[in-house]
Amino acid sequence: MSDPLTGLPRGQAIRRDAGLWGYERALARHGLTPVAGADEAGRGACAGPLVVAACVLPEGKRGQVPELADSKLLTPLARERVYAQVVKRAAAYRVVVVPPQEVDRIGLHVANVMAMRQAVAGLELRPAYVLTDGFPVPGMCAPSLAIWKGDAVAACVAAASVLAKVTRDRIMTELGERYPAYDFASHKGYVTPEHNAALRAHGPCPEHRFSYVNVARALGRDTVQLHRLGDPICDEDNDDVRDLLSDRAPAELASFA
Questions:
Q1: pTM of the full predicted structure?
Q2: Where in the chain is the domain with CATH 3.30.420.10?
């Protein structure tokens, strides 16, 4: 039976010093293997795709990826090294890319939840348990638990974080070559003063999220009307969004359907 507060098997607690593999080891002791982690990159960006990844690391020494940590704590070069090791060592992984047009159409959170379900369901190895970063995801194919700062405390979530971040950074670098006026390779589509200045000077390109406030302002659109329509307004002056934007920091890709 699960503890209603933690979602873990009743009587099971995770010690603070258990390390990055503590959750997986605790679940394994109760026969809940394999464990998948899921995380996203690009939630706070106003341009480019939302990228979601799911990953299952093998048990034992092979699953202990060198340098593995929350992707935001790693340098770009370290992320590339960890990415290569995750791809090499993972028992299964899946990356889903949600284009900005789909984020505009159905909303950021809905797109995020749907992509997480798709990434986990698309794993070649069916998980017995799923750990997600930050918020619960209903409708998973296995029992799941949302962990606050999961990418910093659970290895499988950290691995998913690296897969999503590196995949998205590569996409944004390519988009930077296609749309050089915005310098996507530098800020990766997040709301920075330089990015907003480029928006004001050049207007948005097709890779921007047109339902976001700063992009709408660059078009002179009525943001009050956008709110009324229920679009995912992302205003950099909003405290909740500012928290999201502080998250700045060859996979098998799945198109979002």
A1: 0.82
A2: 22-174
User: How much is the average pLDDT of 8-31?
Assistant: 71
pLDDT of residue 47: 98
Considering the four listed CATH numbers 3.10.20.540, 3.30.70.100, 3.90.230.10, 3.30.420.10, the one that applies to the domain covering 22-174 is 3.30.420.10
| Residue 107 to residue 71: CA distance in whole angstroms | 25
CA distances (Å), origin 49, targets 17, 26, 52, 108:
36, 34, 10, 11
- DSSP secondary structure of 43-89: TT-SBS-EEEEEEEPPSSGGG--TT---GGGS-HHHHHHHHHHHHHH
Distance separating alpha carbons of residues 232 and 216, to the nearest angstrom: 11
pLDDT tens digits along 74-123: 999 999 999 999 999 999 999 999 999 999 999 999 999 999 999 999 99
Task: Give the pLDDT score at 4.
Answer: 43
End-to-end CA distance of the chain: 35
